[in-house]
Design goal:
The complex is a heterodimer. Chain A is mainly α. Chain A has helices at 5-36, 41-53, 55-88, 91-105, 109-120, 125-132, 146-170, 174-182, 187-215, 219-224, 232-241, 246-271. Chain B is α+β, with helices and mostly antiparallel strands. Chain B is built from eight helices and 20 strands. Chain B has helices at residues 46-54, 96-105, 111-124, 140-152, 170-187, 198-204, 222-227, 232-237, and strands at 6-17, 20-31, 35-39, 61-66, 69-70, 82-84, 158-162, 190-195, 207-212, 215-220, 242-249, 252-255, 260-261, 273-277, 283-286, 297-307, 311-318, 322-329, 342-346, 352-356. A six-stranded mixed beta sheet of chain B has the order 6-7-8-3-9-10, sandwiched between helices. Chain B has a five-stranded antiparallel beta sheet with strand order 13-12-11-14-20. The longest helix of chain B has 18 residues, at 170-187. Chain B is elongated, with a radius of gyration of 24 Å. The two termini of chain B are 30 Å apart. The chains are: A mainly alpha, B alpha+beta. Chain A binds chain B through residues 173, 175-176, 178-186, 189, 193-194, 197-198, 200, 276-277, and chain B through 54-56, 75-77, 80-81, 83, 85, 87, 89, 91-93, 102-103, 105-107, 134, 136, 150, 154.
Chain lengths: 279, 357
């Protein structure tokens, strides 16, 4: 039964109210208050250009994009085969994979990041193993640098990719794959000519959601990164906590918000049923 | 069975799922250019048989030969068959041209060849001009044609079709039956066709194998299996049939109700069986003015008079043979009977058959 407009509005009201009070309200108040400190529109514009043009911010934006791109790439690289295995697995194997993916999903990012620090640290599990086996003579620098950030974020964001891809793969009619095989395609041919194209919208949607989440990431790069791995969210936090320069923080927030919303709009187009072959 | 000349040979092919034997020692030899139909109710093993022919299922016993080559363990792509699937299986991410080109693309056929062959195949199914349409922009009938074009584009000698017309409405089905038949004749293809629709099987086939419980229960040209069923199942499955329980009574045959029956075909064992007669072979006459007695004459009362347009169907309750059906062509001077009328049903000894129970 289709909902009436009023009915839909009533059902949505609690979440809309929540969003207004805990997100839109505070962010609006923060932005207006911060920019008001600067005075006129002309001054705001001048300041914005100065901030966005500054080396620190430009570097943070470049870092953020580059890290987010790398993370998206690795998440996809690991996530696609994982989702494929999940799609083919039955019974116990299916349950084990889904638990391995979903359980961390429900665990705090901070807890998971600390877990990786235990694994990757100078005296961590990996280094102790490598040293014990005599493969390396001194501990590898796996953390407090770019590598640590990418490893940590890749792990944290993996479930988003796997679950998105799994949904896309589940929607592929297995009879199409059988048909392709019957018409003479090799296993690789079936994958490249049928399965991959039919799951491509999942690849795009998963990559966008991971990228969106990655550019706003704070905890993992803050804990696992080195001094040069400043991402934009960390810069915002620094402006507020250390220098108390609220206008600058506000500007960077706007930049991040706009980028996120634009990417989200693209994401919504890809998942909103406008792709003709999503069943 | 001459394996050398036949396009398709199944030799005692068997498939089990757990304790269930879904296909039980099926043997068939299909000639080059033959239109061969596997007909049966759902669960009779016809689709599993086709899957073993296609290579989607591996037999637990027996052999599959294509043009004399043993392909029992070969992968589907090594068999070089054309296929039309029940749900069409049209790739939603490819347009009509690319769908039809698919079997050529995977073989890495040269561009020129792909273009001419796809154009030929589309012309054959009357879809020229639809090259850039996607499946979602095509009607059910057009999707069916795409599937058909794709099955014949690589000029396979054998084409398998799994209930290809199941999703179409009745008129369209008939048109497609005729078209498939025409294309098959023109290209001289061997077609192995699976259906549960007896009318479709009768219209299209050179030969029909009727399956039940994993076995072929009868095989032959449409007219033979329709008019001369070897058992009650085949008689009942291929359209309406009167099956009158019968037993031997000395040298003669009688219904359980005592009516004298006579048939030029078949015979009954000691355990009895049925007299089989198609409704359209049964004559209906008003009771008054017909001489009583004689074999194959049974009096009864019309319980239901159905008007099917071109056919008048009477369901007649008789004391001697239970409820019988008679179909009369609604031709010139057809006499109509109403429910409640008493009538006499009769048929010739040539038009009926004695079947074992």
């Amino acid at each position: 039964m289709p909902l009436s407009r009023l009915g839909a509005l009533l059902l949505l009201a609690p979440s809309i109210l929540l969003l207004v009070f805990v997100f839109l309200g505070p962010i609006g108040w923060f932005l207006v208050g911060s920019f008001a400190e600067l005075g006129s529109l002309a001054e705001i514009w001048e300041e914005t250009r100065a901030v966005v043009g500054s080396r620190a911010v430009a570097l943070a934006i470049a870092n953020t994009n580059w890290i987010a791109l790398q993370v998206t790439f690795f998440v996809l690289l690991i996530g696609y085969p994982l989702a494929y295995a999940l799609n083919r697995a039955r019974g116990l194997a299916f349950s084990l994979i889904i638990i391995a993916i979903v359980l961390p999903y429900f665990t705090s990012v901070i807890v998971r990041t600390y877990a990786w620090m235990v694994i990757l640290g100078r005296n961590g599990i990996i280094n102790q193993m490598l040293l014990g086996l005599g493969i390396v003579s001194e501990p590898l620098e796996l953390m407090y640098n770019r590598l640590g950030v990418v490893i940590g974020m890749t792990y944290v964001l993996l479930p988003y990719m796997v679950l998105t891809l799994y949904a896309a793969m589940k929607a592929v009619d297995p009879r199409l794959l059988q048909a392709a095989e019957g018409m003479g395609a090799s296993r690789l041919g079936v994958f490249l000519r049928v399965f991959l194209p039919l799951t491509m919208h999942g690849v795009i949607a998963g990559s966008l959601i991971v990228f969106i989440l990655a550019i706003g990431f704070f905890v993992t790069p803050a804990l696992m990164g080195g001094p040069s791995d400043i991402m934009i969210a960390m810069l915002i936090e620094r402006e507020i906590e250390l220098t108390q320069n609220w206008p600058v923080a506000a500007m960077m927030t706007v930049v991040l918000l706009v980028v996120t919303l634009v990417l989200y709009a693209i994401y919504a187009r890809f998942t909103g049923g406008r792709t003709g072959f999503a069943r | 069975m001459q394996a050398g000349s036949a396009a398709v040979v199944l030799e005692t092919v068997t498939k089990r799922y757990g304790a269930d034997t879904v296909v039980d020692a099926v043997s068939v030899s299909i000639a080059q250019g033959e239109f061969f139909t596997l007909l049966g109710p759902s669960g009779s093993g016809k689709t599993t048989t086709l899957n073993m022919l296609a290579g989607f299922a591996e037999p637990d016993g027996g052999r599959v030969l294509l043009a004399g080559r043993d392909v029992t363990r070969a992968a589907p792509r090594e068999r070089g068959l054309g296929m039309v699937f029940q749900n069409y299986a049209i790739f939603p991410h490819l347009d009509t041209f690319e769908n039809v080109a698919f079997p050529l693309r995977v073989k890495k056929a040269p561009k020129r060849e792909v273009e001419t062959r796809v154009a030929d195949a589309l012309a054959m199914v009357k879809l020229t001009g639809f090259e850039r349409r996607y499946a979602r922009q095509l009607s059910g009938g057009q999707q069916q044609r795409v599937a058909l074009a794709r099955a014949i584009v690589a000029h396979p000698s054998v084409v398998l079709m799994d209930e290809p017309l199941g999703a179409l409405d009745k008129n369209l089905r008939y048109h497609m039956q005729v078209e498939i038949k025409e294309i098959q004749r023109r290209l001289g293809m061997t077609v192995v066709y699976v259906t549960h629709d007896q009318e479709e099987a009768l219209t299209m086939s050179d030969r029909i194998a009727i399956m039940n419980g994993g076995r072929i229960v009868q095989m032959g040209p449409p007219r033979d299996v329709y008019e001369a069923p070897e058992n009650a199942f085949v008689g009942r499955f291929l359209g309406e049939a009167n099956l009158i329980p019968a037993r031997r009574d000395g040298l003669a045959v009688a219904s359980e109700g005592g009516a004298l029956l006579e048939s030029a075909h078949g015979s009954l064992g000691a355990e009895g069986g049925f007299l089989f007669v198609r409704p359209e072979k049964v004559a209906v006459a008003p009771e008054a003015g017909t001489a009583p007695g004689g074999p194959n004459r049974i009096a009864g009362r019309v319980r239901f008079a159905g008007f099917l347009g071109n056919v008048l169907r009477y369901e007649v309750d008789t004391d001697q043979a239970g409820s019988l059906i008679a179909d009369l062509v609604n031709g010139p001077g057809a006499v109509l009977h109403a429910a409640g009328d008493t009538v006499v049903l009769s048929w010739s000894r040539e038009d009926c058959r004695l079947l074992p129970g």
